Amino acid sequence: MQQEMPCFKSQEMEQLLKKYPDMSPYVLLKISLIRYGAILTKSAETRLMEKDLSFNTEEAFGIQFQKERKPCVMPGPILLRDSSFVYINWGETYRNPYVVDYDPKEQKFTLLDDGTVVDEIGFVLRPSFFGKKTRRGIPMEEIADARPQKLVMTTYRKCIFREMNQQCKFCAFFTNGYDGEIAVNPEDIGDVVAEALRESGRFSEIQLSGGTDLSGKPQFENEVNRYIADWQAIGRHMSGRFPSQLMAPAYPKELLRRIYDNTQITSYSPDLEIADKRVFEKYCPGKDRYIGYDNWIRRLVGAVDVFGAGNVYTQVVAGAEMAGPDGIHDMEEALESNFRVCEMLAKNGVIFLSMIWRPHRAEDLGYVEMPPMEYYVKLAKGLHEIRTSYGLHAEDDDYKHCGDHADSDLERTDYL
Questions:
Q1: What is the C-alpha to C-alpha distance for residues 252 and 220, in angstroms, rounded to an integer?
Q2: Taking the CA of residue 213 as centre, how many other CA atoms within 13 Å lie in the half-sphere pointing to its CB?
Q3: Residues 167/158, Cβ–Cβ less than 8 Å
Q4: What are the tens digits of pLDDT across the range 41-74?
Q5: 410 and 416 in contact (C-beta within 8 Å)?
Q6: How many Å apart are CA 143 and CA 60, to the nearest integer?
Q7: Residue 313 pLDDT > 50, yes or no?
Q8: What's the start-to-end Cα distance of the chain, in Å?
């Protein structure tokens, strides 16, 4: 393999900014960080173990990482200087990562590319509810993760598709051998929310998600009943509807109405994962068999009747559609597949987002090469332009609430 030039990541970003001068340099840095990854120097790791910055002992979604040396805790998201943030898979093994260093004398973190400083960065502060327990004695950080302004809870910790060996081929969730309670107790969820709200101004949205449970008649009934109980436990600490998102499968409309009428939530995100129908069928076998691509699209559009235009979301794992033997191997064809579905959904009031996919060895696809940086630049710009043309703005997944969507980060440039 040809050896890469020193600081090649910085050079690559410079070239892309020249080619796409309207691209935000911070969005470009976010894409580059997710694509190439980052590792910590000993000095940075030591600083991140201190109480104001230390987060959790385990990754929030049960992903099994390859770890040469497990730190005492995992850091929170990286903060860039434009106030956007980036999630890094700290336990992963990277080929050409950035390096995060900390200078104790200057008391600042820097991001390095081959020893050269790229920028000064920060880290999201540890939430105050970490280290506390619910009334039932459950550590609160086992129940909730924190983005800068979003409280995130995975309330069902297994996926029936993985048990059936029909999991999505790009998914590494629930692979770390977790053997605790599968369904989080609503009483514990309520306790976490009550404590989190004591940190005034910290959180402006709550999100629930979990693995898929098909059981019940109609299909998904047991899962929906659990989510209703979870949201009702949260709602006891709220007055009226509050900024919130349920990330769950594509439910039939009658179940959606049950959720909406019995909770105070405001948005819903059944993630399509792959925009291209042929690749969806190959890489999402459980979703395809038990719901189906066309039915997923119909339910997305139908959900707008319940939640309203701009309050129904879906996302794709951008880059997975180009991976492996069954992927789309032409960049322009892959882009078009995403743009076509984004526009069709935007016409119907659905917000289509891309989450930058990071390969993992625990996935069925394995640790494969990601698409080039330019693919993610074109995708982010194209999706942003389509949504904006239909007056849609991703307020539930903007730069304050989710660190995965480069395309929604671009919405900040609409006001320049």
A1: 9
A2: 18
A3: no
A4: 999 999 998 989 988 654 444 444 444 445 446 7
A5: no
A6: 8
A7: yes
A8: 43
Residue recorded with tokens 């959606």:
256
Mean pLDDT of 361-371: 83
Give residue for tokens 């590494």.
172
Q: How far apart are CA 137 and CA 133, in angstroms?
A: 5
Q: How far apart are CA 36 and CA 56, in angstroms?
A: 23
The alpha carbon of 282 is separated from its chain's Cα centroid by a whole number of angstroms, namely: 22
Cβ neighbours, 10 Å, residue 202: 17
pTM: 0.93
- One-letter identity of residue 162: R
Q: With H, G, I as helix, E, B as strand and everything else as coil, classify residue 412.
A: helix
Residue 298 tokens, joined = 């119909």
Residue 65, pLDDT score: 41
Provide the token pair at 40.
């910590």
Rounded to whole angstroms, how far apart are CA atoms 367 and 225?
Answer: 37
Contact criterion met (CB below 8 Å) for 148 and 124? yes
Q: Say which amino acid occupies 34.
A: I
Q: What count of other Cβ atoms lies within 10 Å of the Cβ of residue 87?
A: 20
Interatomic CA distance for residues 147 and 126, integer angstroms: 10
CA–CA separation, 97 and 86 (whole Å): 14
Task: Specify whether the backbone of 183 is left (phi greater than 0), alpha (psi in -120 to 50) or beta.
Answer: beta
- d(Cα 338, Cα 340) in Å, to the nearest integer? 5
Measured distance CA(35)–CA(410) in Å, rounded: 18
Span of 175-179, 187-191, 221-225, 345-349 with lowest mean pLDDT:
175-179
What is the three-class DSSP state of 21? coil
Q: How far apart are CA 170 and CA 299, in angstroms?
A: 23
